[in-house]
Write a structure and sequence with these properties.
The two termini are 32 Å apart. The protein has 299 residues and is α+β, with helices and mostly antiparallel strands. The chain has a single domain (5-289), classed as Sandwich (Jelly Rolls). β6 (179-181) and β7 (190-192) form a beta hairpin. It has a six-stranded antiparallel beta sheet with strand order 1-9-4-11-2-13. It has a three-stranded antiparallel beta sheet with strand order 8-5-10, with no helix packed on it. The protein is built from five helices and 13 strands. The longest helix has 15 residues, at 25-39.
Length: 299
């Protein structure tokens, strides 16, 4: 189920690949209904003891660590096997986020994810491990042959330009674009030094239940929502050799990381370079019948 050679070539050329099918649209709609009702309204167990700068992340970030339902989505073989084609056999799931936008919400400004320094702009959240091939924003001269992180953008609603689809600028993953002061993404006070517009990129219009994979350096943003609402779950994967939160005790929003841990989703953790955590226990039931929260009773 990994990527074909044609898909690997497309990813190397463009910095993203897809879409791929994960759920039937009707299943995606039912999953979204459950997530909205049962997962997001409950404060995440991982960060419930701490307050960060952005309140929303308490509820939407890293729900794969306390929700069997979210973990089933994030660890789906359809995603992980393809991520393994890019990262190697040993893969960690280190982060997940939910993004919902409706009419009147601002479009996502174009940006590279880089090393996920995010709002605090202090230490990189992820760094190349010893012995790992060089990656663009860790060494000079730049080498982008191995992504530092692979993201899966999973839609649970139909996504079109009018419904706030992503747009990406193919090929921009081959360089680290310097940043300058400005109002950027997620509260960041920096923007790319080169100006990007949606017309510079490729709009990714996909059906509910599909996903794409993208390189952490590919420039991407979103269109404003003109109709309906769109909901996407973004999950992030790295090689086990990559160091995650290597010099930080808080995440980018200032939340305590003492309960956080990476989850092995493919292969073995031979490198042993990161804090690890067992995922929430999942059942043999269909994903539509999976528990929403780890501490909830079955049924």
């Amino acid at each position: 189920m990994g990527l074909s050679q044609q898909e690997l070539d497309a990813f190397e050329r463009d910095g993203w690949v897809g879409p791929f099918d994960l759920f039937e649209p009707a299943v995606a709609a039912r999953l979204l209904s459950r997530i909205r009702a049962e997962v997001i309204p409950v404060r995440c167990e991982i960060y419930a003891h701490t307050r960060g700068e952005l309140e929303f992340v308490d509820y939407k970030r890293d729900r794969h660590l306390d929700s069997p339902l979210a973990f089933r989505i994030a660890s789906a073989p359809e995603i992980v096997s393809r991520a393994s084609s890019l990262l190697g056999p040993d893969v960690l799931l280190w982060r997940s986020d939910a993004f919902e936008q409706g009419i009147g919400d601002p479009a996502t400004a174009p940006h590279q994810d880089g090393a996920f320094e995010a709002t605090r702009r202090t230490h990189p959240l992820i760094e190349a491990g010893e012995g790992q091939q060089a990656v663009a924003h860790q060494t000079d001269p730049f080498d982008v042959r191995i992504p530092l992180s692979i993201g899966a953008w999973i839609t649970l609603t139909p996504v079109t330009k009018k419904r706030g689809s992503l747009w990406v600028v193919p090929g921009t993953h081959k360089e680290l674009i310097t940043e300058v002061p400005g109002e950027g993404f997620a509260g960041m006070k920096t923007v790319p030094s080169r100006h990007f517009e949606p017309s510079d990129g490729h709009a990714i219009e996909i059906e509910a239940g599909q996903f794409i994979l993208f390189h952490n350096l590919v420039v991407h943003g979103s269109y404003p929502v003109e109709e309906g609402r769109r909901f996407a779950w973004t999950t992030r994967y790295v090689s086990t050799e990559t160091r995650i939160h290597p010099r930080s005790t808080i995440n980018a929003q200032g939340q305590d990381l003492s309960r956080w841990g990476a989850v092995l989703v493919s292969g073995q953790d031979r490198a042993r370079r990161n804090v690890m955590r067992a995922p929430p226990a999942i059942s043999n039931a269909s994903i539509l019948e999976e528990r929403a929260l780890a501490h909830a009773t079955a049924g």
